[in-house]
Amino acid sequence: MILPNALLAATLLAPTVARPAGNSPPVTATQGNALPPIVDLEKAYDSARIAEAGSIPVPAGYGRYCSLSYPSGGFAFDWGDANADPCATMLASTPGGTIARAGLWSKTGGNNIVVRCEDGASVLLYAIEGEPALQQAFNENKTKKKCVFTVAPKSLPVLNAPFSLNDDDVSFVNGFDFARGFTVQTNAGGTSSKVGYKGDAVGYDGHDGMDWPMPKNTTIKAVQKGVVLVARGRNIDKYFPNCPNGSTRTQNEVYVLHVVGTGVYAELFVSYYAHFDSMQVSAGDVVTKGQALGKAGSTGCSSTDHLHLEIARMSNTATMYRRHLRVPATEDYDQTTMIDPYGFSWHAKAGFDPWAWRAIADGRGALSIGLWASGQKPDRD
Ligand SMILES: [Zn+2]
């Protein structure tokens, strides 16, 4: 065999490696010069949790979409039915792209679509029924560069209520607050930087979830199958330094990861439940839909027995394909990707869900999706 010159030179010039003293085994040149592999601990953590959570079946009527970005500034966007693999199909014909977004779209219901092109300088919003929305979003942007297409079905009915809906002792007080620092139009025609889920100006700013007062020891249930990321008592003195004497400062709280669909198209959600009097699960537990997580209470400097529930999107947010899943050691997730699980429903005046896109420059926001399954939507009026 005749070696090409370049390869021959490389072979001859392979570095020599000093053999360690003592009885250590010989070290080859390759081993001696190799750097240890770089392990992305967060990706490894996320992958393990996603596998543990299992897959919640995607309801009928949904397809898969994929938005690819290329180093050249080019992009690709395509969609298909429930079993399509548009990312792989596009990458097979045009290799070298990375997934900017991949997830689910509604074939028959509404979709909200955000298109950002040219480093986010322009943001286009579409809210159209069914497949024409995706086609229109593509057609109107196909001559631009660096476009990323974020699609969210208006509804994906997969979650059950976190308590028995037959329980007449459960009421409702606070809902998700949308505006959070952005001045938007209220449904009454004014403007406010504190706008609640009904489109009204509200006094309670920055509330990421729903509060349901209920008798102590009411059973709180997992909204779907998943894996418990964290179940803990957390000291929240720093948030409520003036907590009255006698209040329970350690807040009992549970975080559960839910995976809807499979592979790169799975949509990830975390449900977060707070103020338990007692908890019945631990980190790492795999729970079934409706499984008891604990008993309602008033821990965490709360003034009344109630459930505080938040839903966070961990996939296809305003700025991320997938958000890391690890819950901070002493904090809640920050407020960047909390959504309204009733969907964004008061858009008459404000237009598109303001929280989903106004803060894109800060890396925040996620499109809300109506997530309650049929017959499982708790009242909130
Ligand atoms: Zn609350």
Give a quick precis of the structure:
The protein is of the alpha+beta class. Helix content is 13%, strand content 30%.
Give a description of the structure:
The protein has 381 residues and is an alpha+beta fold. The protein has two domains: 90 residues, no CATH class; 216 residues, Glucose Permease (Domain IIA) (Distorted Sandwich), CATH 2.70.70.10. The strands form six sheets. Strands 10, 12, 13, 14, 16, 18 and 19 form a seven-stranded antiparallel β-sheet that branches. The protein has a three-stranded antiparallel β-sheet with strand order 2-1-3, with helices on both faces. It is globular, with a radius of gyration of 25 Å. It binds zinc ion. Zinc ion binds next to loops.
In terms of quaternary structure, what is this?
Answer: single chain
Bound small molecules, deduplicated: zinc ion
N-end to C-end Cα span:
82 Å
Q: CATH topology of the largest domain, which one?
A: Glucose Permease (Domain IIA)
Rg measurement, Å: 25 Å
**What string gives the helices and strands in order?**
HHHEEHEEEHEEEEEEEEEEEEEEHHE
Note the beta-strand portion.
25-35%
**Shape estimate:** globular
Helix proportion? 10-25%
For CATH, the homologous superfamily of the largest domain is named as Glucose Permease (Domain IIA)
Uncertain regions: pLDDT < 50 for 5+ in a row? Answer: 1-29
Q: What is the count of DSSP helices, taking H or I runs of 4+ residues?
A: 7
Sheet having the most strands: 7 strands, antiparallel
Q: Which CATH architecture of the largest domain?
A: Distorted Sandwich
- Provide mean pLDDT, rounded: 85
How many structural domains in the coordinates? 2
* CATH class group of the largest domain: Mainly Beta
Please give the number of β-strands. 20
